[in-house]
């Protein structure tokens, strides 16, 4: 998602402002520190690691084994083959009266050793099994005999009732690809966007790199992959995110929307109360590891490491490098309303506050008539400023307003009670969705604390949204939390007939604590500069959101194609029609099949996709044209192959990134790696995951569908495009670009996407009627594409649906 812009700009963060911004220390020292950080994380999770580390066994299995050994001794059998007696001889002699105690202790030690050996064997076997990726490369719907055997063995060795982190010790490490394969794949990916002359020059640089530098850099990467948990993820977090000096707003954060069609209650404080309560319920389940680990395709566990820093986490600015501060617990949230900051406790002596009690606290804030102090209203604009500037100002805040700053940075998360409504409206559905997206992505430039792991945004009409800082985790993790929150606050907690949270209020609760900022005069100018820059950036962002309802996942499934690959190839066609040329395209996919894996880049602008797009240039031939259909299937198959290779650790960009970092540590300049990391991604795309929690019954309640989320453009003259499949028959697109660019227009690209999807669908017999009958959302005018959308607000007397959660 937003990582693409950070990835494109990380090289500048290494080379700007002189040598101080460059990686410091020799490469072996950095590799050693990477491993040390990995081991420190393991030690900090010791107790959870013990509970999950014995998985698929359990602590009770040790008791069973010990009891079985004692029973064997009672029957005068020796399952240890004399080892228990040897252990007993090594124990101190405490006298005759303790002879039986020595026997029990020796049996316990033998049982522990045997139990540990069995667990180690299970871990090794499961890790070897999870290293198999043949199932990922097989055609969809087909399963070979080796894969069936593998799946049966995984189920046998996986145990029952896993906890969130149960599989962490069994996950394989991310492999370091062959450098020759990576360079070959890279050259193949840039061939469609380079002239013959430029390609020959790039290929020459690549051959020189392979001959002179690749083997040494690769050796260091292999050493790191053996020593650290992951050969690339910690460097990715540091150099792509934490060393970036750009503003977090638009450049790094991304947003998530509420239900598209439904607002469960129009009462702002009630919606905030239920949402905050649901989020803290999620945190409680997270701490107890009651959240089930995610299984890809229902059989392959994914790494859960990113869940550890969802809550109680803040990105602290530094002059050269930020750092992530994570607290073990926090019993309050920080709230922003009309330029004022509040601290709201979330727990009493009896535990988590009820939704009604939280609503009461939020309503007290909404009813508070006190004005904001001078410059307090715009203080949060500093978190949208360049990181080095904010770091210097924050030092003054630490000395002048330490308590208030700690209340915000030490909160479980940040809550913004906005004074304006948002969401889909009947009067102007297209413009209202665009404004909703813009409010979540950038707001007013001073009403979000962008350093927090996420900000919960509650609009005056009860609509919700989420603004997420990107460095601590990727979208699927925050998306899982968001799905749980929406399902829990709407279906499980629910609302009374008058739109308030259920249950009685608690008048004994103390008033929310108003935070007071003693702002020195020298900070006032910094706030004004930060606010001006934030408003300029916010005003330059063009957001466009439109639901496409002609067809969705079910139609693509009937075409026997991957839904994601179908859309990616269609996006190539739409972008070509918009700009008249091909460009490097960034698609993010996950590498969580491996321990501490994060993301990899798929490059959808392939030779096969370009051939299809050029064939579609003649619109008279597109409807049912067999040649175009054959080229489209080839492009989809190629994209699927690239996607699966990236997921299985055989991608291009993370390997080249890690090679570049090693070259910087060694002070060995590589013209080839410099060329690779000077590229601009003018089209960045991402699919928003949906229904990860299986809490939504979309078929029975089709209005309760998520409208997804989006991110800012990666390039100043490019687009950011995200999409989400809403149920089986609709897709929502989120498009962003810069208004200052004469080359881009989000609404224009949206129209091209709609046309491209219908043109691609017309290649199939079933899809030809879709192009002939543009109905519902499919009006020619892009401004009216949302004209027939339903919009519901559940207020007084509205019955709440029920479902199992």
UniProtKB/TrEMBL annotation:
One of its GO terms (molecular function) is palmitoyl-(protein) hydrolase activity. The active site is at residue 470. The lineage of its organism: Eukaryota, Metazoa, Chordata, Craniata, Vertebrata. Pfam families: Carn_acyltransf, CPT_N. This is Palmitoyl thioesterase CPT1C. Its EC number is 3.1.2.22. It comes from Phyllostomus discolor (pale spear-nosed bat). GO terms for biological process: carnitine metabolic process; fatty acid beta-oxidation. The chain crosses the membrane at residues 104-126.
């Amino acid at each position: 998602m937003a990582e693409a812009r950070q990835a494109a700009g990380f090289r500048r963060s290494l080379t700007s402002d002189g040598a101080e911004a460059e990686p410091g220390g020799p490469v072996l020292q950095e590799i050693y520190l990477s491993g040390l950080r990995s081991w420190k994380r393991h030690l900090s999770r010791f107790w959870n690691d013990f509970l999950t580390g014995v998985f698929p066994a359990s602590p009770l299995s040790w008791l069973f084994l010990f009891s079985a050994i004692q029973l064997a001794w009672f029957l005068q059998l020796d399952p240890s083959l004399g080892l228990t007696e040897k252990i007993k001889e090594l124990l101190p002699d405490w006298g005759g009266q303790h002879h039986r105690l020595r026997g029990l202790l020796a049996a316990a030690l033998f049982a522990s050793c045997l139990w540990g050996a069995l667990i180690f064997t299970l871990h090794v076997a499961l890790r070897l099994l999870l290293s198999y990726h043949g199932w990922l490369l097989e055609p969809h719907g087909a399963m070979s005999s080796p894969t069936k055997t593998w799946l049966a063995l995984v189920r046998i060795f996986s145990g029952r009732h896993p906890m969130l982190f149960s599989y962490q010790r069994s996950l394989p490490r991310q492999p370091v690809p062959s450098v020759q394969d990576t360079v070959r794949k890279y050259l193949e990916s840039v061939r469609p966007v380079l002239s013959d002359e430029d390609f020959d020059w790039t290929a020459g640089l690549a051959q020189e790199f392979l001959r002179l530098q690749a083997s040494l850099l690769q050796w260091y990467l292999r050493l790191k992959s053996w020593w650290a948990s992951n050969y690339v993820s910690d460097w990715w977090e540091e150099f792509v995110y934490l060393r970036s000096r750009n503003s977090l707003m638009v450049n790094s954060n991304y947003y998530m929307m509420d239900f598209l069609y439904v607002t469960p209650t129009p009462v702002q404080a009630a919606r905030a109360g239920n949402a905050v309560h649901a989020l803290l319920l999620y945190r409680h389940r997270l701490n107890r590891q009651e959240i089930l680990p995610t299984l890809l395709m229902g059989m392959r566990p994914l790494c859960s490491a990113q869940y550890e820093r969802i809550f109680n986490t803040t990105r602290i600015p530094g002059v050269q490098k930020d750092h992530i501060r994570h607290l073990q617990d926090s019993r309050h949230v920080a709230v922003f309303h009309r330029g004022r900051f509040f601290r709201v406790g979330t727990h009493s002596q009896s535990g988590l506050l009820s939704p009604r009690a939280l609503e009461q606290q939020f309503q007290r804030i909404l009813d508070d008539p006190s004005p904001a102090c001078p410059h307090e209203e715009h203080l949060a604009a500093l978190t949208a400023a360049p990181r080095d500037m904010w770091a210097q100002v924050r030092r003054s805040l630490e000395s002048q307003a330490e308590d208030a700053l700690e209340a915000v940075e030490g909160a479980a998360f940040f809550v913004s009670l906005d004074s304006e409504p948002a969401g889909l409206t009947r009067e102007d559905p297209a413009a209202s969705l665009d404004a909703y997206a813009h409010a979540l992505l950038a707001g007013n430039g001073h009403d979000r604390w962008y350093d927090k792991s996420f900000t919960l945004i509650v609009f005056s009409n009860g609509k919700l949204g989420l603004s997420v800082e990107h460095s601590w985790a990727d979208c699927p993790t925050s998306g899982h939390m968001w799905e749980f929150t929406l399902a829990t606050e709407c279906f499980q907690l629910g609302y009374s007939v008058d739109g308030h949270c259920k249950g009685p209020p608690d008048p004994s609760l103390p008033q929310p604590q108003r935070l007071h900022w003693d702002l020195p005069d020298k900070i006032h100018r910094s706030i004004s500069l930060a606010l001006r820059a934030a408003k300029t950036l916010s005003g330059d962002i063009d957001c466009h959101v439109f639901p496409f309802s002609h067809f969705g996942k079910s139609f693509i499934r009937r075409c026997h194609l991957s839904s994601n690959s179908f859309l990616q190839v269609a996006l190539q066609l739409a972008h070509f029609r918009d700009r008249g040329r091909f460009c490097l395209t960034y698609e993010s996919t996950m590498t969580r099949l491996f321990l501490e894996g994060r993301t990899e880049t798929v490059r959808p602008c392939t030779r096969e996709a370009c051939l299809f797009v050029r064939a579609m240039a003649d619109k008279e031939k597109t409807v049912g044209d067999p040649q175009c259909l054959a080229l489209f299937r080839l492009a989809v198959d190629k994209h699927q192959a690239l996607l699966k290779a990236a997921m299985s650790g055989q991608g291009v960009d993370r390997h080249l990134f890690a090679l570049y970092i090693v070259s910087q540590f060694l002070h060995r300049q590589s013209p080839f790696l410099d060329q690779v990391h000077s590229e601009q991604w003018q089209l960045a795309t991402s699919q928003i995951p949906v229904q990860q929690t299986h809490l939504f019954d979309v078929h029975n309640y089709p209005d309760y569908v998520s409208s997804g989320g989006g991110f800012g453009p990666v390039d100043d003259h490019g687009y950011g495009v995200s999409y989400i499949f809403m149920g089986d028959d609709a897709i929502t697109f989120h498009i962003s670009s810069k208004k200052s660019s004469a080359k881009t227009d989000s609404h224009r690209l949206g129209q091209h996407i709609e046309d491209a999807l219908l043109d691609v669908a017309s290649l199939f017999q079933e899809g030809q009627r879709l192009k002939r009958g543009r109905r519902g959302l499919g009006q020619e005018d892009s401004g009216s594409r949302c004209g027939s959308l339903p919009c519901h607000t559940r207020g007084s007397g509205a019955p709440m649906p029920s479902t199992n959660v």
